[in-house]
Amino acid sequence: MEHLRLGEFEEIVLLTVGILDGNAYGVAIKDEIEARLKREVSIGAMQTTLRRLEKKGFLESQHGDTQPNRGGRPKLYFRISSAGMQAIHYTRQTRNDLWNALPQWVLNT
Amino acid sequence: MEHLRLGEFEEIVLLTVGILDGNAYGVAIKDEIEARLKREVSIGAMQTTLRRLEKKGFLESQHGDTQPNRGGRPKLYFRISSAGMQAIHYTRQTRNDLWNALPQWVLNT
DNA sequence: TTGCAATACTACAAAGTAGTATTTAATGTA
DNA sequence: TACATTAAATACTACTTTGTAGTATTGCAA
Q1: Nearest-CA neighbor of B39 among B7, B5, B16, B61?
Q2: Are the beta carbons of A98 and B15 separated by less than 8 Å?
Q3: I need a surface site. Which of A7, A14, A42, B103 has the fewest CB within 10 A?
Q4: What is the DSSP secondary structure assignment for residue A65, as one 8-state letter?
Q5: Taking CB atoms and an 8 Å limit, are B19 and A92 in contact across chains?
Q6: Phi-psi category of B62—alpha, beta or left, where left has phi over 0 and alpha has psi -120 to 50?
Q7: Are A63 and A75 in contact (CB under 8 A)?
């Protein structure tokens, strides 16, 4: 399962691509993460991570129609691949298992 | 909340310390992770991560009694600090929120 | 031809990993 | 009782991958 492992930020990006559901391109993903997690994300971090996830086969990309209201480079849309789906499921499952194994009293500390 | 952020492996280690509940020292934590996640963990990765978590205030350590059955250096026991508890709660919450925001159909892909 | 909206590139910092060395102490043996 | 041997653990060092920031470039419309 090593090949399904996701870094902390990688997982957040992958999930957010899923949430944006067809409207996931660089800047939109960045904005969405910032809004939801109240956490600053640089555009560089965004691009690097997207490309890395694509290279690993967890994301697929395709250029969108080139019809913006007011200038702008064509957007590059991302969507989760089936390997990507496997990865987020695996990650979630693993963490839930650990969490469920925590003794009750530890949680009330 | 940036100061509560945990890396992928850091989170696993922290949770496993909680699971071991008073019996968490380097080698035991390593063995537990390997058994639960079916994932190889080097002893070096283990030590580095434990020290990092301690330095960040998410773990506290103390030497155990020096009475092993058969030789051996005194064990160094770890437990989750209250900042550590906050961190795992925060991380879990954040991920669950994202997960819950995923459109249903994406999950069945 | 200017300005905006987006992606691409480059370099660096932090987290993750592996391999090896060192420390501590019990045990066997002369 | 001294001492070599061995087991069990932690400490150190170097390297890879992931995360982050800053800046440059591209493409398009007014």
Answers
A1: B16
A2: yes
A3: A42
A4: P
A5: no
A6: beta
A7: yes
The CA-CA-CA angle for residues B22, B24, B30, to 5°, reads 160
A59, two tokens: 């994301």
Q: What is the pLDDT of residues B43-73, one digit of tens each?
A: 999 999 999 999 999 999 988 765 555 566 7
What is the mean pLDDT, run by run of 10 residues, along chain A of 109 residues? 90 96 93 93 94 95 71 86 95 95 86
Does the structure show a pLDDT above 90 at B109? no
Buried b or exposed e, range A67-80, using 16+ CB within 10 angstroms? eeeeeeeebebbbb
How much is the pTM? 0.92
- Cross-strand bridge partners of residue B61: B78
Residue with tokens 């990650």: A91
Q: What are the angstrom distances between the C-alpha of A95 and each of A9, A101, A107, B76, B96?
A: 15, 10, 15, 25, 11
CB atoms within 10 A of CB B39: 14
Residue A88 structure tokens: 């987020």
